[in-house]
Amino acid sequence: MNSPEHVPLGDVIGRAGNMGGGKTNALVALATNPALRGGVLFLQHIDTCRSAPDRAESRTKARYEGAIAVDSVNTLRQEIERSAARNIFIDEVQFFCQDEASLKALCELVLQIRASGRNMFWSGLQMDFRGQPFEITAFMMSISTHLELLVPTCPIEDCGRPAPYPQRLEYGHPVPRSHPRYLPDTDATGRYTYGARCSRHFCLPEAWNEHSVAIHKALELSHKDGFKQGFADGQNNLHPELLEDARRKGCEEGKIEAHIRSHQID
Ligand SMILES: [Zn+2]
After folding, report:
1. Over the stretch 7-34, which tens digit does the pLDDT of each residue have?
2. Model confidence, pTM
3. How far is the CA of 163 from the centre of ligand 1 (A)?
4. Domain residues of the chain, as ranges?
5. Concatenated DSSP letters of the chain
6. Topology classification of domain 12-150
7. In angstroms, what is the span from residue 249 Cα to ligand 1's centroid?
């Protein structure tokens, strides 16, 4: 079997799961393990850089100094071809596959890396904000020789159940299904955030109803005006435009404030 031309396949080592599960931490720990032989090439998507483009940084600030940020599967391929490292790390694979062509290209590239005998270490988000699987992560999981699923626990009301769903929030409210699939949480305004949720606490409204749209517009306005938490000022007064808009949209008098303060966008 072992002819001189035979090249053993490389290993594929994966860390899949949800945000807040420690995927990047785990990947940085593998990359900095002194037992790893043959050099490291650590690649990440430019949209996922939390600090400098030459560092892979997790939410808990674990870092890989010397990480390279790239913006497409093409540049990913160029960096891999240019490098002599035996161990190729790709953080947050789902960011590289924002269209069909990139998905196909990355699947091919990964199989080529494996066939060349180089080892691949990857991390990826299991599901998008709608709870749908990320195709590239599913593909990577299926070819992994070593795989760990890193799922945090749900933080809502001391729930503690496994939280594999990434809940996307806009000013703290669950966004509807019609939102775009890709939206990094690096928005400096803090408008969009993510939280890990269990199946009971994950929430995906089909759409905002008319009343909610009115509240949403007012939230945006009050956020611009610097009102605390987007709807109340330092004295906890509700933004007047917010109340007015809700009234115009027919919210029952006397229930407006309670409705808005409950944070419920339904
Ligand atoms: Zn929960």
Report:
1. 899 999 999 999 999 999 999 999 999 9
2. 0.77
3. 7
4. 12-150, 210-261
5. ---TT--PPPPEEEEEE-TTS-HHHHHHHHHT-TT--S-EEEEEEGGG-SS-TTEEE-TT--EEET-EEESSHHHHHHHHHH---SEEEEE-GGGG-SSHHHHHHHHHHHHHHHHTT-EEEEEEESB-TTSPBPHHHHHHHHH-SEEEEE--B--GGG--SB--EEEEEETTEEPPTTS-S---TT-TT--EEEEEE-TTT----S---HHHHHHHHHHHHHHHTT-BTTTB-TT-PBPHHHHHHHHHTTPPTTTHHHHHHTT---
6. Rossmann fold (3.40.50)
7. 33
